[in-house]
From TrEMBL:
<dbReference type="InterPro" id="IPR000672">
    <property type="entry name" value="THF_DH/CycHdrlase"/>
</dbReference>
<feature type="binding site">
    <location>
        <begin position="166"/>
        <end position="168"/>
    </location>
    <ligand>
        <name>NADP(+)</name>
    </ligand>
</feature>
<keyword id="KW-0554">One-carbon metabolism</keyword>
<dbReference type="GO" id="GO:0006164">
    <property type="term" value="P:purine nucleotide biosynthetic process"/>
</dbReference>
<keyword id="KW-0658">Purine biosynthesis</keyword>
<comment type="pathway">
    <text>One-carbon metabolism; tetrahydrofolate interconversion.</text>
</comment>
<keyword id="KW-0521">NADP</keyword>
<feature type="domain" description="Tetrahydrofolate dehydrogenase/cyclohydrolase catalytic">
    <location>
        <begin position="6"/>
        <end position="121"/>
    </location>
</feature>
<dbReference type="Pfam" id="PF02882">
    <property type="entry name" value="THF_DHG_CYH_C"/>
</dbReference>
<dbReference type="InterPro" id="IPR046346">
    <property type="entry name" value="Aminoacid_DH-like_N_sf"/>
</dbReference>
<keyword id="KW-0511">Multifunctional enzyme</keyword>
<dbReference type="GO" id="GO:0000105">
    <property type="term" value="P:L-histidine biosynthetic process"/>
</dbReference>
<comment type="function">
    <text>Catalyzes the oxidation of 5,10-methylenetetrahydrofolate to 5,10-methenyltetrahydrofolate and then the hydrolysis of 5,10-methenyltetrahydrofolate to 10-formyltetrahydrofolate.</text>
</comment>
<comment type="subunit">
    <text>Homodimer.</text>
</comment>
<dbReference type="GO" id="GO:0009086">
    <property type="term" value="P:methionine biosynthetic process"/>
</dbReference>
<dbReference type="GO" id="GO:0004477">
    <property type="term" value="F:methenyltetrahydrofolate cyclohydrolase activity"/>
</dbReference>
<comment type="similarity">
    <text>Belongs to the tetrahydrofolate dehydrogenase/cyclohydrolase family.</text>
</comment>
Amino acid sequence: MVASVIDGKKIANELHVEIRAKADALAASHGVVPGLAVVLVGEDPASAVYVRNKVKATAECGLKSFEFKLPAETSEAEVLGIVERLNKDPDVHGILVQLPLPKHIDSDKVLGLIDPDKDVDGFHPLNAGRLSVGLPGFVPCTPRGSAILIEKVQPDLSGLHAVVIGRSNIVGKPMAQLLLQKNATVTIAHSRTKDLPAVCRTADILVAAVGRPEMVKADWVKPGAIVIDVGINRITTPEGKGKLVGDVAYAECAEVAGAITPVPGGVGPMTIACLMLNTLDSAYRAAGATV
Ligand SMILES: Nc1nc(=O)c2c([nH]1)NC[C@@H]1CN(c3ccc(C(=O)N[C@@H](CCC(=O)O)C(=O)O)cc3)C=[N+]21
């Protein structure tokens, strides 16, 4: 079997068009332009692309973008102060504090201070709790984007087994919650899972979110399975060139899977589209308008 390629970039661009229309409608009806504030502390080379793509997407979607680029030695108190200001700013509907933060800053403290109603990353414990009990709230962007991709291929997950490799608060856990909400039978696997390849082979839907380049091999994949690759790893090829690869050995797994996301061009662009979507939702809620 040769897998169909799930084109995350195309689906993300289609979402941008829909978001643009809804943002323009909100501006016309309520005079409100959805605003996203991004706080960056220090220089993380991997985040440069992310920030660039985010700025491009906000423009495409007709959203306002507020950038706060702070030096690595910025104190925790200063970052907390900025978050407090953004919490109060009516032009800001979404706040994203880019992770990882420098070691001298307690990220739990910073994330916990973000107004849950502006927490477009969905990282605040209140939003994590809302997701786990099925209340409306912000869903983290990467799992939300991955769920949209899965739905395009397979709208009905009841009776299907989903295996999520990775148990992070940012991807693995919320991904599992979303799949459960959609009636999949869900296994969360991780580094201590016994015979991980065998567990993965039972998956109708396999989501890899571990941050290990090309860890998932062809013989881990059930023939016909949907494979979602959340990993974005920068590696150096034997020829000394930089290259972006996922957590899935793409070429060999594409020969076994039914559908698979590429890296780049898969989950990454969907993460950004969902950040736009969460910001749009937030602005609609703040304006008391219905999407
Ligand atoms: N508070 C917070 N929220 C985040 O969501 C967050 C974060 N911190 N810190 C950094 C990571 C990383 N991340 C990416 C999202 C999209 C692409 C992306 O668009 N990738 C494209 C292009 C990749 C490329 O060409 O380098 C793709 O996969 O096709 C990459 C990386 C979000 N993160």
